[in-house]
Amino acid sequence: MKVSLFTTCLGELFYVDVLKDVTEVLERLGCDVDVPEGQVCCGQPAYNSGYAKDTKGPAKQMIRAFEHSDYIVCPSGSCAAMFHEYPDFFADNSEWHEKAMAIAKKTYEFTQFIVNVLGVEDVGAEYHARATLHTSCHMTRLLGERESHYKLLNHVKGLELVKLPNNYDCCGFGGTFSVKMSPISEQMVDEKIRHIEETKADVLVGADASCLMNIGGRMSRLGKNIKVLHIAQILNSHQKEGGASNVNESRKSTIL
User: What's the predicted TM-score (pTM) here?
Assistant: First the structure.
């Protein structure tokens, strides 16, 4: 199965190791992964800030970059959801609307693709820790995906997954919201961290690097000793209790 990796801006700039983990997991599951060179920002920051017209340019470029892909997989629920917004941009242009619809139909978030397309729930991962999961807003509310990440984590050997209280609450990032409304954003992320601490988890897991960057950055400033990992880092781990892992310490600490 041929899969094109939608790397995202944060992935390319800050979380290259997460992209490596995503690629290795997909390849281990039998996928042939490529990375289209023409991809740019999907336009989400501009779109979320109200500049819908200015988003059409990046949208067209992304459609061109991925139009020949069989499947598009993205390690971010919010960026994957953005591709599903594209058809609305071109409602008055039948040619581009058709192309945008084709892109949306073959775009999946990483865990969503593994569970719903590949039909896999156990990827053979092993990670010994007490963990809790932050479910991002765009993944649950826009993509409508609420189960795939739980299904995969529940099959990770050695992982004790604890339910996060009020997991449906936003972490306060919201793209430019955290910049424009920083006092409110700070209160939201502080509340999220309080709930994380209630679980007594060693590790916070998530499927959106933007959320993890926000939560992890705030926890670092507050001196909280909780590791923050993208779900791909857990799924690509073969850690033995008291032993080594194929995800080394520098890679496991990428988010922080």
Answer: 0.90
